[in-house]
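User: For documentation purposes, I need each entry recorded in a consistent format: the amino acid sequence on its own, followed directly by the corresponding structure tokens. There are two entries in this batch. Please keep commentary to a minimum and don't merge the entries.

Assistant: Recorded as requested. Entry 1:
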Amino acid sequence: MTATSPSRLATLDDLERLLADLEAGHGELRLGKRSRQVLAALTGAPQQAAVSSISDLAVRLGVSPSTLSRLSQRLGFEGFAGLQAIFRRHVTEGQHFYSDQVSRLLEGEQGDDALGRLTRLGRQESANIGDMVASIDGEALERAARRLAEARRVRIHGRRQFASLTSFLAYGLGMLRPDAAPLDAAGHGIADALARLDGDDVLVVISAFPYTPSVLTAAEVAARQGVTVIALTDVTNSPLARAADECFAVPNHSLFFSNAMCAFMLLSEGLLSEVASQLGEDGVASLQRREHMIGELGDAL
């Protein structure tokens, strides 16, 4: 068996192989029992290791921050940031996420036909929706809707399959209030779009594992500019949560080959409905103007 060299550690798989080598007594590197336990805890919860500060992780693991720094140095890194970068790459790249999802679907078929698979997916989505509704903080939902109703401008940012949810939210908000759009609706680039936002504006960001790096960065940049950030994501310790003023965790456990979307869609509808409630007669007037315009255009639509 070839031992994993600390100087070549670059992925979560590398760390897991190193742990196996250490337990088997292979290689030149030696770590004490407590250090091995800490490394095992980090690799066992890569998302937490990716998004937590060194101080927070130390508290959770029952060690001092200097212990994490020394462990990182023993593994060949200059400091903890080098070790943490492995976990951050893991949660943003997720190289095998989609194929792994399909593999689990195939493994669980047990003779299911198309209707049987649809039924299983339906049950999973129902569970996601139930868990999401049960975990939502009603006051946070009201605050988020109020921010969306009162902001000067609202921009929504999601990539990959969340681009469709971005479009839906922008369309729905646009029916109720002016100046709501996808972040880069003009096609001038994310940097240009972010530069136009300030403390009177709201940015809604949407992403789930494997997180889209550009969405994470946009949220962080917007937060530094004083823009209110509302995050729709998958777990409470998502990387998006660090930059968000309001964060909603949406369970998406499913055998679908990508992120399950039904609970995300329900939350979006709930937010839009609450915005309509917050706007009251102003929202009704906006919808009436749209209806009048549709009637004016007629067949030209």
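Entry 2:
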Amino acid sequence: MSRTIVFAYHTIGARALAALLARGEHVVAVVTHADDPAEGDWFESVAGLARAHGLPCLTPSSPNLPEVADSLRPLAPDLVLSVWYRRLLGPALLALPRVAALNLHGSLLPRYRGRAPLNWVLVNGETRTGVTLHHMNEAADAGDIVGQRPIDIAPDDTALTLYQRMVKEGVDLLLESWPAVVAGTAPRLPQDHARATLVPRRRPEDGRVEWTWPAARIANMIRAVTHPFPGAFVGDGRARLWLWGGSPLPAAPQGALPGTLLEIVAGRGVTIATGAGGLLLSRVQSAGGAEERADVWAERRRLRPGMPLAEVA
């Protein structure tokens, strides 16, 4: 039986670990990130699962500290698997496994290498993404591909709904590929580096939008970072307004300045003029307030069509 060290985090990491354990695979150690209450409790804990199964579990500040490889080397792993682990593994760790060091990545490589590809495909209005199981090297997400599964992106997908499908497809791809991986016969398809795109990590401040953007671009940002992510917003301080739900309108109003309230639609929200087309905002949240339906918010603030939202504090 092969010996595997799993580097993992988040729900997909926990589900992948659980799937390997359910198959009777010999996981000799787990490396994860310490659970952070500031991130919320919307995803499953790899550390909790590992401890529930009595597995050695490390949560180092960096996986590439010399003592991490030193502690793992005596375990003589055949395989190293990384699933949603947030740090690149250095040469000492990549040299540990006898058979392969693999990573499960949330895009169809070579596109969207790097951090947060799940959010970036929505920000960019993509209609298709997927998951890729690939060999690791020292460059981010650049190793030979073992297998991929495509995932279509629906117009109403948010980062959460897309992630939920990605979890299932990713674990299924892992289980489908695992026998060949263990045997050392899995495919190794070189990536076309000329087609590669690299995306950076995202921070809460990256959720800022401008009313001068086209409505479709604003709507894509909203769905890319809505709950349970930090959210899209306009304005600062007391004038900050969080945008939790929105969609572009099929008909584009003419002549209104971007950021102008066009209509209050009872039971649905409010329509806002943008740099190109109109946006139906369904749910918003004022600074210091609670999330609410956008039409309720507008009526409570006594807003009327023709008012610029930039003046609302």
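Summary note for entry 2:
The chain has two domains: 3-199, 204-311.
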